[in-house]
Amino acid sequence: MLGRRVDANTPQVTTVCMDFGRESRDPIAQNEWMAATPATAALTRLRIPFTEHEYAHDPSVIAFGEEAATVLGVDPDRVFKTLLADADGSLVVGVVPVSGRLDLKALAAAVGAKKASMADPAVASRRTGYVIGGISPIGQKTRLTTVLDETAELFDTVFVSGGRRGFDIELSPADLVAATGAVLAGIGRA
Question: What pTM does this model have?
Answer without folding.
Answer: 0.81
